[in-house]
Amino acid sequence: MPSATEIPAPVAIKRPFTSTHHGVSRSDPYHWLRDPNYPEVDDEEILAHLEAENRFYKDYMAPHEGLAEEIYQEIIGRIKQDESSVPHKNGPYFYHWKFSEGAQYRTWLRRREESDTAAILLDEVALAEGHDYFRLGGLSITPQHDVLAWSTDTDGSERYTISVKTLEDDDSPGRVHADHIEGTSGSITWAACGEKFLYTLLSKEHRPYKVMLHRLGEEASEDQCIYEEKDPSFFVAVSKTSSRRFITISSGDHVTTEMHLVSADAPEQALLLVAPREAGKEYYLDDGPGSFLIRTNDSHKNFRIVTAPLGDPGKDQWKEVIPASDTHYLTDLRTFRDFFVVEERKDGQEQIRIRDWDGKEHYIAFPEQSFSTGLGSNSEYKTQVLRIGYDSMITPPSVMDYHLGGRNLEVLKEQEIPSGYEKSGYRTERLVATSHDGTKVPISVVYPKDYKKDGSQPLHLYAYGAYGLATPPSFSAARLSLLDRGFAYAIAHIRGGDEMGYHWYEQGKLLSRTNTFHDFIACAEHLVAKGFSAAGSISVSGGSAGGTLMGAVANMHPNLWRAVVAHVPFVDVLTTMLDDTLPLTPIEWPEWGNPITDREAFDYIRSYSPYDQVSAQAYPHMMVTAGLNDPRVTYWEPAKWVAKLRELKTNDNRLIYKTNMGAGHGGKSGRFEKYFDVAEEYTFLLQTL
Predict the structure, then answer these.
(1) pLDDT given for residue 14 in this prediction
(2) Residue 121 and residue 173: Cα distance in Å, rounded?
(3) DSSP string, 340-366
(4) Which of 313, 437, 582, 605 has the fewest Cβ atoms surrounding its Cβ within 10 A?
């Protein structure tokens, strides 16, 4: 059982606040925890409450500092201190990054193909000095390889500042230009000339909405707007096609896309629309030697591949080259001079298909039955070697080259575990649970080889289940600290992700959202039936939209869980979806529904929204985290949720809550520092179980 703290749990004051929509009035006495000046948070009363929660959290952790430190040292002991990436070729250089001994951040380097000496491109360690938080956004080099542009975020707000410098082939730091652009999304796309680049500007609501063209040496105020997205529910992104001949400008929400093209030689010229936006339809474009290739779900949920002429890519010119399939879900597309690559999933398993331009194709063969794979750094358009990544629940991440000529995989590097790791000491399985409506839901589970499936040992269950984002059966060195203490660790591949195809996503969103919760509960019950744990002894975790899941299942089936960990949880779903002044609300309506205009969506979201459904009942032990500068899940959502839980829960199970006061959605940023949060989470789980 968790030890008692020496200070009382903070009690948030209650102030009357009522909102009415569709004739329904809702009382929210903790509404005051939202600072009216957000994204600035300077209300002293609010900050005092968050700091009181942080003191309570720290007081709870104090007796367990020894265990937390032990786990932390275990985790960082599995991290190679002087880790480096496998160099990848881009033009006349090989590029890579490295971590120096003890460094929290990377140093980026390159060397000429004929040289053994690498020069420093960018030193994140120096850039991060003096900042409690640091994250590198974009890192982009001109086609001539002589100028570097990069972007940084130093407070977790995800508003990136772009800087530029000239590169040298020695250890000279290079000349930093006066160019300085604030308030961007972080991405940088160079024109072919190397004298100007495109970037995306954020609105005050934090929406990427303007594509700007910047010329080196000019003030940001003089930058030219190339494209502006007027729809408040659409975000904009900029990239280049694989041949680097075209720049693409993509607009979209979670289910609809629209793309414009412009020549990389003349990005200030008029844009060419590929196909006008059509609600619920997506398409993504790349270019081959003589045509465009487009991945689209215009005729089937699982996408198909079509070609289009370079001069006229409109939809009436599309010709199918790979038809859609009920069994093969096409997830990505990448072109090269002599072939193209399709990433896909069949029965939930990731695969890589390679197809020549004349139609001959094959799949890469991998050594395990259950794994995660995808393309790595492939900068060369003309190549016969593919760089890919690979791992599984028991195989550490590997960097491989696939040689098309011999159709063989060459392992270049497998993640080293300095403290030691024996793959043979662990087992992994893929199970299938039956959900409430008869749907079969996959589960990936890993456990130590001597794990006893008699219900006596601990089980941790994780899931996300939203936005069509799959959770692959991948490796985690940090997770070993649970496995080595007798845990089994399971991933529930619930609906809302797209593991089993696009329909899997559709069946876990909008008016089908509660399927994700029922799937998760079914997976837990199936694992209990298989002897992996006992009801009431399972720990669970999820973050962001996975935090919605945590809040929902804690309300729906509290006696099934021993401990719940919710990271930056999206728990006040209805209130947020009713507020179109918040940064991300309009773009979220295709995912959650628009309760402003749709009474059915209002009632449905209200029926599961974790904050709305907190009731007077016994809850499991709970750990909640937040980021004060988080633009995705605002800090007040978990703050209000915890306050309401403290008010209504009927037992003495521990409820602790921590706000990272200088971070955002991803928590702390340092390579080692971020793992102390993981160590505290594992400590909490061990103390409760």
Answers:
(1) 97
(2) 8
(3) EEEEEEETTEEEEEEEETTS-EEE---
(4) 437
Which pLDDT tens digit goes with each residue over 520-551?
999 999 999 999 999 999 999 999 999 999 99
Both tokens assigned to 312 = 């006229």
Cα dihedral sign, 598-599-602-605: negative
Cβ neighbours for 587, distance < 8 A, ≥ 6 positions apart: 207, 233, 234, 235, 253, 254
What token pair was written down for 554?
A: 């804690």
CB 567 within 8 Å of CB 583: no
CA distance 565 to 563: 7
pLDDT digit string, tens, across residues 338-348:
999 999 999 88
Owner of token pair 């990433």: 343
Angle (CA) 78 81 87, round 5°:
105
> Which of 540, 543, 546 has its CA nearest to residue 487?
540
Helix-then-strand count for the chain, H and E: 13, 37
Other Cβ atoms less than 10 A from the Cβ of 68: the count is: 21
In order of their start, the domains of the chain are 131-277 (2.130.10.120), 282-415 (2.130.10.120)
Q: Per residue in 474-493, pLDDT tens?
A: 999 999 999 999 999 999 99
| Alpha helices, DSSP H, located in 5-160 | 44-61, 65-77, 124-128
Residues in a beta bridge with 27: 18
Residues serving a catalytic function are 544, 630, 665
